[in-house]
Amino acid sequence: MLQWNLRSRSARRRRRPEIKVEPLEQRVVLSADIPTINGIGNNLNNPDWGSTETELLRNTEAEYTDGTSSPAGDDRPSARVISNTVGDQESDATNDRYLTDYVWIWGQFIDHDIDLTEGASPAEEFNIDVPQGDPLFDPNGTGTQQIPLDRSIYEEDADGTRQQLNQITAFLDGSVIYGSDDVRASELRTFNGGKLKTSSGDLLPFNEAGLPNAGGPSDSLFLAGDVRANENAALTAMHTVWVREHNRIADELAAGDSSLNDEEIYQLARARVTAQLQAITYNEFLPALLGDGALAEYQGYDDSVNPGIANVFSTAAYRLGHSLLSPTLLRVNADGSTAADGNIALRDAFFNPSAVTDEGIDLLLRGASLQNAQELDTQIIDDVRNFLFGPPGAGGFDLASLNIQRGRDHGLADYNQARVDYGLEPVSSFSEITSDPILAAKLESLYGSVDNIDVWVGGLAEDHVPGSSVGELFQTIIADQFERIRDGDRFWYQNLYSGAELFEIDNTTLADVIERNTDIDGLQENVFFDRAVLRLELADFGTTQVEIAKSGQDLVISDRVSGSVLAVAAIQDLKQVVIVGTAANNERVTVRAGAAAAGLEGGILFYGSHGQRDRLIVTGTRHADTFVVDGHSVVLNGSEVQAFHVENLDLRARGGDDVMSVRRESAAKIRMFGGNGDDRLFGGEGWDLLSGGNGRDLLFGNGGNDDLRGGAGSDRIFGGAGDDFIDAGEGHDLVFGGRGADFILTGLGFDIAFGGPGHDTIDGRTDRRRVAKKPPAPRSGEPGSGKSDSDSKKHNRSRNDAPPQVAKRQELQSGESAKQHRSDAKSEQGRRRTGRGRA
Fold first, then answer.
1. What CATH code is assigned to 16-179+271-494?
2. Which end of the chain has less Cβ packing within 10 Å, N or C?
3. What ranges does the record give for the region Disordered, renumbered to this chain (predicted)?
């Protein structure tokens, strides 16, 4: 069981905040311009930006076959063939980051807040050819079957190029709740106390006005701000929660200030609900999907930023959620048992209001917190790949085929061109897209060339960015889009609210909103992650240094500065521990050997914040340990600890004869400290610090400009390639500088030092030394020498005589960070900034 130390939570968010609206804040919000329902006028200089019925942005090259209108990909296989080849999911495959069903439920909910592109009128067929003998769509082998699809609504730009339209507002403005046109917005209101309409059971109202709705205008379907509210029961449940939240806030406003009229209450509640939608999306959802730190920090409203939706975002990248869908919606009682009527298959939850009216929303919302979503990859569950909205041949569709075909309809750039257009390096082989050789072979058999891949398929096929559930291209596209939505919104919540109100909004979680508006209690604090994930954000505790250790059968997280315990959790209840850094520098997470070896299924993760000197420190046992750096991970005796966006990875042995090595290079600086014992330390190809400590140690710098320190004991040190600094330390040491311009400092003892190829400096420091020179070389000034006298002689200087860059290094104490003396060897830091949308 997880326990938070309440005495240490003064800076931590308060769970279930009951937001109280202050009269002053009410007047500030009401005195400001109120955002229009259709988004017009948000940007005073460009009033149409982000409004309804505007063109999707072309952030990538249009690849229509005829240059202006004919669908792309006429030389590619049928979308159904591609779906059958790479999209067929034969078994359950839950994601490896413990994301729950809420990641796709919320993802769909906010997608319906920011983009909608319906079919053209009159309709233009662009049907999908079904391969002959398709077991579901052509079981009789006619070879004439098609999956129906109409092309999207569009306008032609000044060049005559077809540009599709976004029919709702691009802003994350709650239009999914309130609508994007005045008719729908008005029909949803009671005009009494600022509240929205509901039906029996405090559910969504039915479509008694016969307004346009996906699934038809029938009054048996619910009415909501977006026409797609009935698409599945989980989505309908989420809509219901937010109508209730609006009405809860409206009641609170009315009770707190009797002078407010209906319109004022409605607008104040709408602003508050929108603020919460924005905060949850950016504080919880996007970090869960993209990984922490994927978006740039908010710098305030920028009227030069167009928040419009990019075509490649809505038509390809953000359709990644279709891969996350679970085949079953769990319906769970308060005691954890399955509801009397059982769970519901997703294929049976489409346009099925009875799944909500008969059982309510609590069972579905509780179940979503208990089930992990599928892995994000090219594979799609049968419920939407073969049974979308009905069985094959009887109204059913293949969602994977529809996504591929829609991208071609919109003339989207191919996968590699999209990478180039978003500032990424193009790939030259299928193995660069995915490390799965079977998938790479399938892609090659379908497309032949990496320059002809449908962007939705290529984006899903990419290996995930470490610490994320998406590949590089989709992470870049989605981050760019959500940065522009935020930065280009004059009514963004951080511009409207301040002080305590802003604090409360920023710290409202989706779990808070659900529990306030249902009979559900006991949800995990972050419902986007499995409840067995312990996620601790340093900003919540006002600290930058924590330690994770094992105590009995518990994991204990403590503040290294104050010593206070921040969290305690039973190991048997945990699958993963995640530590999230702040914007501060010099953040340190220390993982003790017992914690690393606790056997957590998902291990321990630390997300730094790209700050300077952020550091993961992994300490060993008092026995012989094996440390391996594997990219962004440190593996201690087979147990993995991962770090992202950090400057340093520190490996610290405590005793025994330890082995430290690099399997895959890391973007971070690697520092190895052997401690007591006869240790073997092997650096990587970049800059490393290797410190042997006490004992007879063996140090290999390998590539890079390394800092190697033997310490006490008779050590063997090999610098390897690069311009290395080597301090032999005490004892009878044997030193080989290797290739490069090395500086070798021999220590107290009978040392032997070989400089190796390159312009080396060997400093003996004492009278008790023996230096083995390089093989005889031409005298200075002789043909072929290429050296001055000082290059070809052994240098016997004091520390004060050493070159400045070396003298500075000599001042560093063993165990402390060494600065690199050549800028071209510094590790690349910082993250890539994504591009802005083009109008």
1. 1.10.640.10
2. N
3. 63-92, 755-839
